[in-house]
C-alpha cells in the first residue's frame, strides 16, 4: 500500500516551556485514483518518541484529505488515528472504591494526563467521479486525545459507483469523541454499505451521526447503514443517530442502530470453557473490533504475534479498558458491581 504517516512529538516541535502554549498542525492530502487504476492508501496519525523527556504541550490537529476515484478505478483507503497515548483505566470507579483498594484515584490521574488537552479534527472528502468507480474506506479512531472528531463525506456522482464506509471509534477515560459520516447518492444505480462500531468506556462521551441522502436523480439506489455500540461502563455515554433522506422513489435503503453491554450469555459460555472473566471480556471486545479492523490492509494490520502490528496495538488498548468486577442484577437490569 501507499503509506502516509503523520507523526508528532510530545512538544510538537515547540521550544516554549510555558504551560499555556500550544501548537497547531494542518496536514493536507490529495489522492487521485485515475480511470482503471487500483490503489491501496493507508494514513496513520501516531505519536513519536512517547518516552522522551520533552515537556508536552497542547496540540491541535486539523487535517483534511481529498480523494477522487475515476471510472472503473478501485481504491481501498484506511485512516488510523492513534495519537495521545492511552487513557487512564478504571476511571469509572468511585472515590470510595479507589480508597478501599489503596490505589491512586484514576479520575485525578486522568485529569493530569497531558494528552487530555489535545484536539484532533479530521475531514475526509471522497468523490467518485467515474462510472463503476469503487471506494472502500475504513476509519479507526483509537487515540487518547481529549477531544476528537472525524468527518467523512462520500459523493457517488456517476452511474454504477459503489462505496463501503466502515468505522470504529474507541473512547475511554474522560475523552470526548465524535464520528460523522455523510454519503450522498447523486447518480442512478449506485450502491453504498456502511457499518459503524463504537466502544465507549470509563467516563467518556461519544457520538455518531451518520447521514445518507438519495437525490431524485439517484433511482435504483441500494444503500445500507448500521451503527452498533458497546458500553463498557455505566458512566459512559453515547449518542448514535443514523439517518436517511430519500428523494427518489425507486430505491432499496435500510438503516439501524443498536446499543448494548457485553453479552452476559456469551460471557457465561466462554467462562464455562475455562476462560477467566477478564480474558472472556477482552475476547468479546476484540471480536467486535476485528470485523472492522480486518478491512485494513493485511500488511499494516499484521498478525497476532507481531507486537508492532495494528492488531496488537488495538489489543493493548482494549486490555486497558476491559471492565473489572462482576455484574449485579439491579431493578431487573445488570449493572457493574
- The total count of helices amounts to 6
Strand order of the largest sheet: 1-4-6-8-10-12-14-16
C-alpha-based Rg, rounded: 21 Å
State the end-to-end distance: 46 Å
Q: Fraction of residues in helices?
A: 10-25%
Residue share in β-strands: over 45%
Task: State the secondary-structure class.
Answer: alpha/beta
**What form results from the Cα inertia axes?**
globular
Q: pLDDT average, as an integer?
A: 92
Secondary structure: number of strands: 18
Order of helices and strands: EEEEEEHHEEEEEEEEEEHHHHEE
Low-confidence stretches: none
Q: Could you please describe the fold and organization of this structure?
A:
This protein is of the alpha/beta class. The protein is built from six helices and 18 strands. 16% of the residues lie in helices and 45% in strands. Strands 1-4-6-8-10-12-14-16 form an eight-stranded parallel beta sheet, covered by helices on one side. α3 crosses α4 and α4 crosses α6.
